[in-house]
Amino acid sequence: MSGFTVKPEPVQVPGLTHLHTGKVRELYATASGELVMVATDRVSAYDWVLPTEIPDKGRLLTALSLWWFERLADLAPSHVLSDAPPPGAPADWKGRTLVCRRLDMVPVECVARGYLTGSGLAEYREGGAVCGVALPAGLEDGSRLDEPVFTPATKAEVGEHDENVSFEAVSAQVGAELAGELRELTLALYGRGREIAEERGVLLADTKFEFGRDAGGRLVLADEVLTPDSSRFWPAEGWAPGRPQPSYDKQIIRDWLTSAESGWDRAADTPPPPLPDEVVERTRAKYVEVYERLTGTPVPFG
Ligand SMILES: N#Cc1c(N)ncnc1-c1cnn(CCN2CCOCC2)c1
């Protein structure tokens, strides 16, 4: 079992239809058919949505996503129409709400990896390849790949892991031409993100993009982009292949949850306990740090 300890009750807003409760975001529709993505302060770890929120996480990741959308706009248009909450929305939606164009979503998680870790490492250790792409022998946890690799996945049901699939499987699912466009665009977007992050001393190990098509059939960048929830960011100074790299944002939580202090047994498949204030504060500080280090600006709110 994993997922929510207690499934949250979404806020009801006049004029909005609630569509979906994700691990850390809520999705609504307006009467005119636009989508409203609301980023919460929820955080997940080890496939559980934790009972303790991280203050300002939703606003920090929304601001970071907007910052990246601007820097990727010459490569792909985005689905974002506005960052202004709809009329009648709760005041605390300000800064963590995106009103988006409704797209015909491509049912593929478009993942790019510049470093080997996580499910990619596990697959590599089994067969020397990831998503059917053969990699050199001798790679370790955290190894930088000679070239970034497109490693798509199919979207999993809530509580399940996405399944890595081959480029050939994506081609069979969406057609070879679109599969080729997805790979090319995913790698181009990853390359831009990695370049900008590295200039700031941050390694972009991997990231997941989602695309949809607009009425004209054009590929549009959807969902969130290049946030700690959709990507692995590592501080360059801490990078050392051959061991798990410290995650920028979740390492503090993971370390506490797996420490004796938490009293939690991950293998017991029981919900994690609430986080101590000190873990919450240090985690919030990490989100602030990754935002300020990447954007070069202070967080845009008090
Ligand atoms: N983005 C977007 C988008 C769009 N622009 N048009 C139509 N559908 C979607 C959509 C619907 N679900 N998802 C999966 C990811 N969700 C993101 C939000 O939070 C919940 C998970 C994408």
Automatic annotation (TrEMBL):
<protein>
    <recommendedName>
        <fullName>Phosphoribosylaminoimidazole-succinocarboxamide synthase</fullName>
        <ecNumber>6.3.2.6</ecNumber>
    </recommendedName>
</protein>
<comment type="similarity">
    <text>Belongs to the SAICAR synthetase family.</text>
</comment>
<dbReference type="InterPro" id="IPR028923">
    <property type="entry name" value="SAICAR_synt/ADE2_N"/>
</dbReference>
<keyword id="KW-0436">Ligase</keyword>
<keyword id="KW-0658">Purine biosynthesis</keyword>
<dbReference type="InterPro" id="IPR018236">
    <property type="entry name" value="SAICAR_synthetase_CS"/>
</dbReference>
<dbReference type="GO" id="GO:0005737">
    <property type="term" value="C:cytoplasm"/>
</dbReference>
<dbReference type="GO" id="GO:0006189">
    <property type="term" value="P:'de novo' IMP biosynthetic process"/>
</dbReference>
<dbReference type="InterPro" id="IPR001636">
    <property type="entry name" value="SAICAR_synth"/>
</dbReference>
<keyword id="KW-0547">Nucleotide-binding</keyword>
<dbReference type="Pfam" id="PF01259">
    <property type="entry name" value="SAICAR_synt"/>
</dbReference>
<dbReference type="GO" id="GO:0005524">
    <property type="term" value="F:ATP binding"/>
</dbReference>
<keyword id="KW-0067">ATP-binding</keyword>
<feature type="domain" description="SAICAR synthetase/ADE2 N-terminal">
    <location>
        <begin position="19"/>
        <end position="269"/>
    </location>
</feature>
<comment type="pathway">
    <text>Purine metabolism; IMP biosynthesis via de novo pathway; 5-amino-1-(5-phospho-D-ribosyl)imidazole-4-carboxamide from 5-amino-1-(5-phospho-D-ribosyl)imidazole-4-carboxylate: step 1/2.</text>
</comment>
<dbReference type="GO" id="GO:0004639">
    <property type="term" value="F:phosphoribosylaminoimidazolesuccinocarboxamide synthase activity"/>
</dbReference>
